[in-house]
Design a protein that fits this description.
Adenylosuccinate Synthetase, Chain A, domain 1; 3 domains; eight-stranded parallel beta sheet; four-stranded mixed beta sheet; 20 strands; globular; binds inosinic acid; ligase; GTP binding; GTP-binding; Adenylosuccinate synthetase
């Protein structure tokens, strides 16, 4: 196998960063293909916690090549800050960080529009990260976006920027009643100052990746956010603005779907969600509190407390279907160590009837009633367990239950944030 994708199967924050970090050892390239610095990947190496928003977690491995693909929307200042950060911790990005010249740039007016749109939505707000992601993708689809390649052509960039500033000022004032004025000269010179710092990393990543795959180099695609936040198959409109499932890989990396060989999903042993939107297994009680406290469920990008609930396998099964998962990695199993009983959602009832498909609308999903199986807890620490056989019987049964329900294997189980707090039953590559 030379290409492998890792995607979230829930609403994000499944612990992809740690798993991608481990799998990066076997990769030549680690590639992000969608999203921007709305993501927050936390990786703990030798007790030191690193939070990355844009750079793939693979950047922490010396010598690994990291790609920010054409499907991303990039905050250049955020990119530069992360480059500086990894240099400070002794890692060099030179010669191994590649940023697509086709990726779109996030400008201050995108962030203002994000805030204005959320404000106007009021109680129905999405709860975005306010990083300007949605407005930047809106410009991309509206064919008025500015791509990194545009910054190379001074006159054309100036013209596009002027037009965009005017359009956004008018929109903010007249549509959102949220007037903001943007200083063209300041934005232009600031963007160019940062662009010059990162220009050496900018290249045509589409041909780079196609050549690498054709040469049998090993490419790991790292999904940010997750399948249920995917703009097409997620819980629309409470989603992010990109294809954050594996469906986004071909378009966002510029490679044929025939080039993605295996796709593995990541699921937490329970479920969390940040921001608004339906969440059938959400627990607004002490059990939810305990999950939040044990799982340290606070957003790594925004610091917001995450909503918590039991594992929703019915939703994960939908993700397994759309991504055609080859297997599922379970993370944060140790968070369940404290529970006498563990509930797992295995179906939804809508208007008193069991349904056989994951609802397409947020309205339906709000109305479903989860159907639970209750499994016995293990009430033992699993953090230091190194092999599947050492896990308590009840924990093994929990994993087997997941495998049987989904019909796919669980090759890796994570029982803590550190790299070595991981049970590897079968090597993915
Ligand atoms: P946006 O991506 O900032 O537009 O936010 C859209 C939705 O996706 C909101 O509900 C966010 O909380 C959620 N979201 C975006 N990025 C992440 C992430 O990395 N983890 C979890 N949720 C996210």
């Amino acid at each position: 196998m030379s290409t492998l994708a890792i995607v979230g199967t829930q609403w994000g924050d499944e612990g992809k960063g740690k798993i991608v970090d481990i799998l990066s050892e076997g990769a030549d390239y680690i590639v992000r293909y969608q999203g921007g610095n709305n993501a927050g990947h936390t990786v703990v190496v030798n007790g030191v916690k690193y939070v990355l928003h844009l750079l793939p977690s693979g950047i922490l491995h010396d010598g690994k090549k990291c790609v920010l693909g054409n499907g991303m929307v990039i905050d250049l200042e955020g990119l530069w800050n992360e480059v500086e950060f990894i240099k400070r911790v002794g890692k060099s990005p030179e010669g191994r960080l590649f940023v697509s010249e086709r990726a779109h740039v996030i400008f201050p007016y995108h962030k203002a529009l994000d805030a204005a749109s959320e404000k106007l939505k009021g109680d129905g707000s999405i709860g975005t990260t306010l990083k300007g992601i949605g407005p930047a993708y809106r410009d991309k689809a509206g064919r008025v976006g500015i791509r990194i390649a545009d910054l190379k052509d001074e006159e054309s960039f100036k013209e596009k920027l002027r037009w965009n500033i005017r359009e956004k000022e008018l929109t903010l004032k007249h549509v959102y009643n949220y007037p903001v004025s943007f200083n063209f000269d300041e934005i232009y010179s600031h963007t160019m100052r940062i662009y010059e710092k990162v220009a050496d990393f900018v290249c045509d990543t589409v041909s780079l990746l196609n050549r690498a795959i054709d040469a049998q180099e090993r490419v790991l695609f790292e999904g940010a956010q997750a399948t249920l936040l995917d703009i097409d198959v997620g819980t629309y409109p409470f989603v992010t603005s990109s294809n954050s499932s594996a469906l986004g890989i071909p378009a966002g990396a510029g490679v044929s779907p025939k080039k993605v060989e295996k796709v593995y999903g990541i699921a937490k042993a329970y479920t969390t969600r940040v921001g608004g939107g339906p969440f059938p297994t959400e627990l607004k009680d002490n059990t939810g509190e305990l999950l939040r406290a044990r799982g340290h469920e606070y957003g790594s990008t925004t610091g917001r407390p995450r909503r918590c609930g039991w594992l929703d396998l019915f939703a994960v099964k939908f993700s397994a279907q759309v991504n055609q998962l080859d297997g599922l990695v379970i993370t944060k199993l140790d968070v369940l160590d404290a529970f006498d009983q563990i509930k797992v959602c295995v179906g939804y009832e809508l208007n008193g009837q069991l349904i056989d498909r994951f609802p397409s609308t947020a309205r339906e999903l709000e109305q479903v009633k989860p159907v639970y199986e209750t499994l016995p807890g293990w009430k033992q620490k699993t953090t230091n367990v190194k092999s599947f056989n050492e896990l308590p019987e009840e924990a093994k049964n929990f994993i087997k239950f997941v495998e049987d329900y989904l019909g796919i294997p669980v090759p890796i189980i994570s029982t803590g944030p550190q790299r070595d707090e991981t049970v590897i039953r079968e090597r993915i590559w």
